[in-house]
Amino acid sequence: MEQKNIVVIGAGVAGLTTALLLSKNPRYKIVVAAKHMPGDYDVEYASPWAGANYMPVSERGTRAAEWDKNTWGPLADLASNHPDAGVHFQECEIHNRAKDAGSATAVWFGGSSGTVFTSVCINTAIYLPWLVSRCLENGVLFKRTFFKHISEAAEWGAQFSGKVHAIVNCTGLLASRLGGVEDPLVVPARGQIVLVRNEANRMLDMSGTDDGDDEACYVMTRAAGGGTILGGSYQKGCWESQVDPNLAVRIMKRAVEVCPELTGGKGIEHLDVIRHGVGLRPVREGGARVEKERIGSVWIVHNYGHGGAGYQSSYGCAQNAVELVEEAMTFGSRPRM
To answer: Can the peptide bond before residue 98 be classed as cis, meaning omega within 30 degrees of 0?
Structure first.
C-alpha cells in the first residue's frame, strides 16, 4: 500500500479537524505546517478567540447547511462521551429583533425570531490542544513555518516523508495574502470579546444592539472552568488588533443587562475580567471555499473562509476536504473538479 504524503497548512480548527480526519487513513502521512499553533493568541489566528458554540443559521439546501448538519453529530458525541475535549451541552437562547433586520450582525445571526434549544459550547483552550493530541496519536507531525507561496509547501514537506502528493490549504484569513491563492473575497470581520470568571447558566445571542449595527451581544460559558465569553462585534474589513476600551465597556454593559445572573443583578464592576481580546474572523464573500485545484504538479485542496462558523461547520467541511483529497489521490494526474 503506497504511502501518500500530505501537508496541511494551518492549525486553526479547520486545519486540525481536517488533519485529524485524514490521519485516520493509514495510507496518509501528514505534516501540519502553521505560523500559529494552539496556545498562541494572535489577532490573525481566529480559533482561540471564538466563543465557541453551535448556532446553525445557514440557508437550507446550501453547502453551508450541510456542513453544519454533518458537524452536530461529532460535537454532540464529544459533549456526551469525551469530557477531556472541553465540549459541553448548554441551553441556548437566540433573540432576533425585527429592528435589526439588514444590519451586519442580523445577517450573521439569521432571520427575525426567538429560539431556545440545546446546543454545545466549546472551551477552545482545551479543544484545540485536544485535537492536536488526537492527531499526534495518529502519527501527524507538527512544524512551525510560514509560506509566502503555497507551492513552497511541496518542497518543504518533502524533507519529512518524501514527495508531497497533496496540500490542504486551511490558512483562514491568510488565504487573502498567500501567494498562489491571494483570494480577494477573504476579508476580516473583527470580533472583540471580554473573558470573565463569572458564569451564566445559559448561552445567549442577540441579533443586534442599540449601540451600532456592527456590534453584537452574546454570552457563552465555556466548559471545564473556561470562563464566560462576552461579545462582541462584527466589523467587516477592519484589521485593528488593539482592544477598544469603549467597546469593551459597551460589551460588558450589554451582557449584564441581558444576563443579570452574571453579577447577581449588579453592575459591570462585579464582572471578574480574565482578559480582553480581539480576533479576526476569516469571512469569505459568497461562502467558504472547499474545493480542489492543481497547481503545478501538486493537488491543492482548499478549506478556508468560514467566518464565524468555523467550529460549527468544522467536521462537515473537513469531511468534504477529505473526500476531495481522496478524489485527487484516485484520479492522480488528471485535473478534475
So the answer is: no
User: In whole angstroms, how far apart are CA 101 and each of 26, 234, 320?
Assistant: 49, 15, 32
Q: Distance (Å, rounded) from C-alpha 328 to C-alpha 326?
A: 5
CA distances from 17 to 52, 227, 251, 311, 318 (A): 15, 24, 31, 10, 6
Contact assessment for residue 233 and residue 216, using Cβ atoms and an 8 Å cutoff: yes
Q: Cα–Cα distance between 190 and 44 in angstroms, integer?
A: 10
**How many whole angstroms separate alpha carbon 121 and alpha carbon 204?**
11
Average pLDDT over residues 77-102: 88
CB 288 within 8 A of CB 307: yes
Which amino acid, 261? E
Is 8 in a helix, a strand, or coil?
A: strand
Q: CA 132, CA 142: separation in Å to the nearest integer?
A: 9
Owner of C-alpha cell 488588533: 241
C-alpha–C-alpha distance, residues 246 and 237, integer Å: 20
Q: pLDDT by residue (tens digit) across 185-217?
A: 999 999 999 999 999 989 999 877 888 889 999
Beta strands in 35-113 (DSSP E): 87-95
- Give 90's strand partners: 119
